[in-house]
Amino acid sequence: MTRKYIWWLAAFTLFPIAVFAVAELNKSYLIWRIRIVDFCDLTLLGPFYAIALFVFYQIITESIDKKPDLRNTSILVKFALFFLACLFFEGHGMHMATNAVSTYIAEVHNYKPLIPPDAWELLFFLDEFLGHLLVFTALYTMLIIYALVQQKVPMHKISALSFVIISILGVIWGGAQMVAMIEASLPKLMLLYTSVSLLVNIVLFLRSKEQLFPYLAQRPLILFIASGLSAILLLTPVYYTILGGFLQPSQIGR
């Protein structure tokens, strides 16, 4: 089980980064009228996120079903995860579709002066605000549910090597999340969601009355989440200080 956890967390962390990096380096290429970076997000990352959420759903629901005293909440948790997954994909689809249109208008061609200002504002709202808001709200709520369930259902203690690997993957995932939310122009929302999620994890740990490392060693998903959230809170002020603000990564060097 530990090996499967590590392989899956590695895929969940590294695959989106790799796809985005390759696509971003070749973003001037078009597939029909869609930039390759948007095309890859729609055709590769969308299905990948569906598989990822399904795997996490299986991990959490199987944990609940093994714990008799949690079976009363099983239906509620399953419904919440299903609803949040729908919310996530509604936001993802909204963002990617409108982003493909807006980049075609403003970056591939200089059509923006021809677009009525109110129409452009609507496109921007759906792309950069509402789409991202739905995605990140759903994601961070799911992270809290994952932590709540795994706090109640610990696993067998993982090895020191597995502990380190999962922590590193969590830090990488957190760095990628920070970049994504800054690129989405939502740094304040990122800090709010991250702080609330990390606070929930701290409260769960304190209520367990266990020592920190044994607690995390029996809960690899919480270890991954806590490492990522901590990385976001530590790296964000560094990013802000070096660049003098929350400059979007895509604008650096322009």
Structural class, from secondary structure content? mainly alpha
Elements, N to C (H/E)? HEEHHHHHHH
How many domains is the backbone divided into?
A: 1
Helical content class: over 70%
Number of strands: 2
Count of DSSP-assigned helices = 8
**Cross-sheet strand order for the largest sheet:** 1-2
The proportion of residues in beta strands is under 5%
Residue stretches low in confidence (pLDDT < 50, at least 5 long) are none
- Average pLDDT: 90
- Radius of gyration (CA) equals 19 Å
**N- to C-terminal distance:** 46 Å
Largest sheet geometry: 2 strands, antiparallel
Overall, the morphology is globular
Could you describe the 3D structure shown?
- The chain is mainly α and 254 residues long.
- A hairpin with a 2-residue loop joins strand 1 and strand 2 (34-35).
- Helix 2 (36-66) packs antiparallel against helix 3 and helix 4 (117-152) runs parallel beside helix 6 (187-208).
- It has a two-stranded antiparallel sheet.
- The chain has one domain (2-251).
- The protein is built from eight helices and two strands.
- The chain is globular and about 60 Å long.
